[in-house]
Amino acid sequence: MRPDLIQNRIDKAERLREMGVNPYPYRFERTHQVSEVLANFDEEEAKEDSSSVAVAGRIVSLRLMGKAAFAHVQDASGKIQLYIKRDDVGTESYKAFKLLDLGDLLGVRGTRIRTRTGEASIAVTELEVLSKAIRPLPVVKEKEGEVFDAWKDTGARYRRRYLDLILNPDSREAFRKRSAVVRALRDYLDERDFVEVETPVLQAIYGGAMARPFETYHNALDMPFFMRIALELPLKRLLVGGFDRVYELGRVFRNEGVDRSHNPEFTMLEFYWAYADYHDAMDLVEDLCRTVVKTVTGGMTVEWDGKTIDFEPAFPRVRMVDLIAEKTGLDVLKDPEEKLRSKLGEAPDFATRGHLIEELFDQYVQGDLVQPTFVMDHPLAISPLAKVNRHEPELLVERFEIFIGGIEFGNAFSELNDPVDQRRRFEEQAAQRERGNDEAQVLDEDYLEAMEYGMPPAAGVGLGVDRLAMLVAGTHALRDVLLFPHMRPEEGRGAEDEVADTDTDTGH
């Protein structure tokens, strides 16, 4: 960023003060958002009492023509053209206006008009400077509604999300849809008598998922703590305490890599339903997904990555082992482990048959599950919190994952509520950890003690909220629906360098 561009704008702010104009006033009273002014525009323009509209927003285009000017201001709902004449606003106000640049915030009062080109506009009678921006925006060239040079550097957009939101309407819309997804999830569960609760983010013992945690330290208690990797174990304690239906929407933290569908900090919905099993949970999740998609998009299909995802048909419910057999010809429950390993090429030394089955599924099956699909009955060895399968209790558990567009969106169990079996499973996980599986679960004595008082049979479900938002917003990557994704420190050019060499594009 050239220092003289910033200094030029600082000087303009000082000249406004010398004119008696505060470039950073305390408030402005709006009567309308831009979208409200544009709604039923011709009908409202024809009314005699339509004269008083007051809007505020950021200047995103500016064209000075001596005694008159055209500009567009943009607020959270849209943008509208302003027609500003010196004779209408007064000489002093017009002088102040001529000190403004792209990116400054402006409040105006005026009347609805259509210009000679037919564009819905506001003929300004009063204007007020609301914030003088001293740093120029990145250059975005637009003509007749078509963007020719949008700010598309994704790294810079993620680092400076505020600029992305100013310059890219699609980004603003994606985050509106994300908010609508969260609201729809809450409404759905609230209507079915689930109680929303909050559980600790900092935990002395982490658990509820196969993941590595972030570590921290509690100075007052003088002991290590962990950022939670799941919401599960505290929520199931509430089932012991007598809550029949509970849920939490909250942040969880897993010390893992970053890619299109993973971020170390993400939002999870988990809910627990006493006296239900994983079949009940599948019914509910299927209806929940349809409801969210219909509520947010208005339809039952979404376009994602060049594919049409259809939520109308019944979601297939298929066993994991059957899907692997279909793709590879392997009978993963009976074939020798060496045969499974040879199909994978590489597998960790600690891998049991269950881990090999999971790896085979990931490599040969998952990417082809485009339409919403429930994958059922996972290996026992990789599911230490799920009840054993009623039909194959030695090998499988009652668990499902939902896959859409080749990505896992949720995970669910018939919850294990036998404390003796749960202790044995935790001990098996500890043995795996000793063999090198640093994502194995940790034994939690406090959780086991709670279970020993009696936990009802229950279904438990975890859904990735960010992934749902990415789906309904039609975005390519998880970071497109995270307002502030974590990034490495930038090198070289940044957003502040991506501006015009001068402010001549404002007409100055």
Short characterization:
With 508 residues, this protein is an alpha+beta fold. It has 16 helices and 20 strands. The chain has two domains: 3-137, Nucleic acid-binding proteins (OB fold (Dihydrolipoamide Acetyltransferase, E2P)); 170-316 and 371-481, BirA Bifunctional Protein, domain 2.
Task: Report what the structure shows.
By secondary structure, the chain is α+β, with helices and mostly antiparallel strands. It has 2 domains: 135 residues, OB fold (Dihydrolipoamide Acetyltransferase, E2P), CATH 2.40.50; 258 residues, BirA Bifunctional Protein, domain 2. Helices cover 32% and strands 24% of the residues. The protein is built from 16 helices and 20 strands. The strands form 5 sheets. It has an 8-stranded mixed beta sheet with strand order 8-12-13-20-19-18-17-16, with helices on both faces. A 5-stranded mixed beta barrel has the order 1-2-3-5-4. A 3-stranded antiparallel beta sheet has the order 9-11-10, with no helix packed on it. The chain is elongated. The C terminus is likely disordered.
First and last CA, distance: 19 Å
Global geometry: elongated
Specify the helix fraction band.
Answer: 25-40%
Name given to the CATH architecture of the largest domain? 2-Layer Sandwich
Q: What is the count of β-strands?
A: 20
The overall pLDDT average reads 92
CATH topology of the largest domain: BirA Bifunctional Protein, domain 2
What is the helix tally?
Answer: 16
Structural class estimated from helices and strands: alpha+beta
Low-confidence residue ranges: 494-508
Strand content: 15-25%
> What is the C-level CATH assignment of the largest domain?
Alpha Beta
Number of domains: 2
What is the assigned CATH homologous superfamily of the largest domain?
Bira Bifunctional Protein, Domain 2
Our Rg estimate from Cα atoms comes to 29 Å
